[in-house]
Specification:
Residues 1-18 form the signal peptide. By secondary structure, this protein is α/β, with parallel strands linked by helices. 40% of the residues lie in helices and 16% in strands. Helix 5 runs antiparallel to helix 6 (130-151) and helix 6 runs parallel beside helix 12 (262-273).
């Protein structure tokens, strides 16, 4: 894979002179959002099923989701470049694309601000949008600086349970390497420590953790019927978050993408978890 990536990153420089003929396919919602924020959204000809922002992307053809993505479907759309999240598209498919002569950029995405900035700059370089990428990075840095200034006046360090769910069928606590990583930038801490990824929400662990807040994706909160629906989940009503109805949410992609809106997401979460700062 490393050899494959190196070959096609080197090939990008020859490719970028024909900017007006770009036909981009993206695989991964954060990548799609970045390409659009760089001003190249109009050149995306297709994306994957997770790419729902900006809204107009939803009107484009879909290449599918993870293992359902195949080279034939991509090639039929005649892309000049494919930008994909690492491990999102199967390697055999990537090999088929390179054999077909498609320029390929594979992004190793990690959920922290430094990797977010690196990802933006890498995509900017691949699309000959270096100046725009630098401006996006500067915007994130400005927002994070403002976030730290806000936190200078905080009076609490709340314990937060980050929950990912799809209705009542799947309700999980979020740990390391998930959107819960945003808590590191918001003057809060994860109520349930020492878990990686997403783990099924355990009633006993929930009650023992006794979070001050429950942070959810807005779509997840809505799928449970709002705050009242969350209170019906076993154990929630026995926690401080449940008793005080401190159940909050942020738009799912804004919260989970760690993309161009990351700094904005941090400030939004800060206000939700530190309401004492809202009036300042």
């Amino acid at each position: 894979m490393k050899k494959l990536i190196t070959i096609f990153i080197l090939g990008i420089s020859m490719f970028c002179h024909a900017q007006e003929s770009l036909r981009i396919i993206t695989a991964g919602s954060a990548i799609t959002e970045i390409v659009c924020a760089l001003g190249e959204g109009s050149k995306i000809v297709a994306s994957d099923k997770t790419s729902l922002y900006p809204d107009y992307i939803q009107k484009l053809p879909s290449i599918g989701y993870r293992s359902g993505i195949n080279a034939e479907g991509i090639l039929s759309l005649k892309p000049t470049i494919v930008i994909a999240e690492k491990n999102y598209v199967e390697e055999v498919v990537l090999q088929q694309l390179t054999t077909a002569g498609i320029a390929l950029v594979v992004i190793d995405r990690k959920l922290n601000v430094e990797d977010t900035k690196k990802m933006i700059l890498q995509i900017g370089k691949s699309l000959n949008r270096n100046d725009q990428a630098a401006k996006l990075v500067a915007s994130i840095e400005t927002n994070l600086k403002e976030a730290q200034q806000m936190l200078a006046n905080k009076s609490t360090e709340p314990k937060v349970l980050c929950v990912y769910n799809r209705g009542t069928a799947t309700i999980s606590a979020a740990g390391a390497e998930t959107f819960a990583e945003i808590l590191k930038y918001t003057g809060a801490k994860n109520a349930i420590q020492n878990i990686d990824g997403y783990k099924p929400l355990n009633t006993e662990s929930l009650i023992q953790a006794n979070p001050d807040y429950i942070l959810m994706l807005t779509s997840g909160l809505e799928s449970l019927g709002g705050v009242d629906g969350v209170l019906k989940v076993q154990g929630v009503a026995l926690t401080k978050a449940g008793k005080q109805k401190q159940i909050v949410s942020v738009d799912g992609l804004k919260l989970t993408n760690f993309g161009p809106r990351f700094g904005e997401a941090v400030k939004e979460v800060i206000i939700l978890l530190h309401p004492e700062l809202a009036a300042k």
